[in-house]
Amino acid sequence: MSCIYADSGLFIGVTGDIGHCCLQNTNAMNIPWNFDEYPDLNSWKVDQPKLNKIQNSIDLGEQPSVCSTCWKYENAGMNSHRTRGRRLLDGNRGIEFVDIRLGNRCNLQCKMCDAHHSDQIGKLAHQLHDSGIPNHPYLSMPDADDTWSPAQVSQVLNLVSALPDLREIMLAGGEPLIMPEVETLLQDLIDKNKTDVVISVITNCTSAPRSMIEKLKKFKRIYINASIDATGQYLEFQRAPAKWDAIKRTFDRFQSAGFNMEISPSISMLVLEDIPNLLDFGLSRNTIVSFNEVDYPSYLRYQYVPLENREHIRDYLKTYRPTADVNSNSNWQVFAQQGLTEYTEPSQQDCDLLAHYARDVWTRGQPFLELYPWAQYMIDRANDYKPY
Fold it and tell me: For the chain, does the N or the C end have fewer beta carbons within 10 angstroms?
């Protein structure tokens, strides 16, 4: 099986024995952007020895390090993105699956995100810096080499729409549903009568333009992967400046359009305590809830939440039995038995960083300690942190 994963900068994924799996930054792997030398994406992918090495390793049953996220879940007895793939690929043809991210344009400043994936975080970092406030996000601003030019975006869109064996496109960002390039790609596929492909969208559910919904409805099948981590004030803190009521309305619009829905939270210290409410929301919408654990940034790891603040989650998961998806249910039960009882003593650096963000960066909305009073123990340990 073959797939290409594209970001603001080029990313590639290779596929394993079931579904599609690992994602790897080609800049970090030193895989060149040289599409001009090849007539199409299939010939380009075949000629990349590092990608082929990863593919061969997976085919031999090995666990290459670039796939570490999937191995982490599978080795813990959970289903991973690779193994729970809903739409298995043939594996005997050219590129069938494309995961494409056309930039970092976004409308949120999610606490676990960065400027590479949200231009709003970049804007905040510049505003703080220009106001004389040193801030950690300013250290990791994307540069010109990390972003596609308009010409490269156009080239990629043309190459993707020309793939003869294309079966599925995944769209992410940033927030893909506010990107005009995404609508351009969908219209190009419609114009070329290539609407038999599956379209998957990873979205924060803050935007559902009518024109975008009407275009999506023309395709074979639509999967909406809703990046919703919590409900109410916990959601609004983690994904500022999102509003929970607006997200519910957008979610319902997607569901009313007949799209296949899944909720996929990123579990961090900021949303752990609200897991029961999120799972209840999934049940109320007859929607499966999968999850990812936030390991980076490490100062947001849920393992820092005191165990006494998790007892209500443990009690809830004892009786939680979703009927929509066996894989999701299995993962939550493993989480209840293993992950939920995992406590880690925070490092000094993570205490310093958390206090820095709470004081200097998260300046909009509800103060951090009002919502997470248990975190006072980390703040008390913190030293004054100056990123530059």
Answer: C
CA distance 374 to 308: 10
Asked, as a colleague might, if the bond just before 322 is cis with ω within 30 of 0, I would say: no
Tokens of residue 334, six digits: 């493993």
In whole angstroms, give the CA distance from residue 203 to residue 251: 10
Strands (E), 135-251: 168-172, 198-203, 221-226
Nearest to 81 by CA among 291, 282, 228, 325: 291
Beta strands per DSSP E along the chain: 2-7, 9-13, 23-25, 95-101, 168-172, 198-203, 221-226, 260-263, 266-267, 288-289, 292-293
Q: What is the pLDDT of residue 43?
A: 85
Helices (H) and strands (E) in the chain, counts: 15, 11
Cα(231)–Cα(238) distance, rounded to whole angstroms? 10
125 close to 118: Cβ distance less than 8 angstroms: no
Strand partners, 95: 2
- The whole-number pLDDT of residue 324 equals 59
Range 323-356 burial, b when 16+ CB lie within 10 A, else e: eebebbbebbbbbbeebbeeeeebeeebbbbbbb
pLDDT tens, position by position, 208-224: 999 999 999 999 899 99
What is the pTM (predicted TM-score) of this model?
Answer: 0.87
* Pairing of the two strands 9-13 and 23-25: antiparallel
How many Å apart are CA 30 and CA 28, to the nearest integer? 5
Which phi and psi (to 5°) does residue 218 adopt? -80, -10
Local structure of 54: helix, strand or coil: helix
Q: At what angle do helices 275-284 and 311-319 cross, to 10 degrees?
A: 30
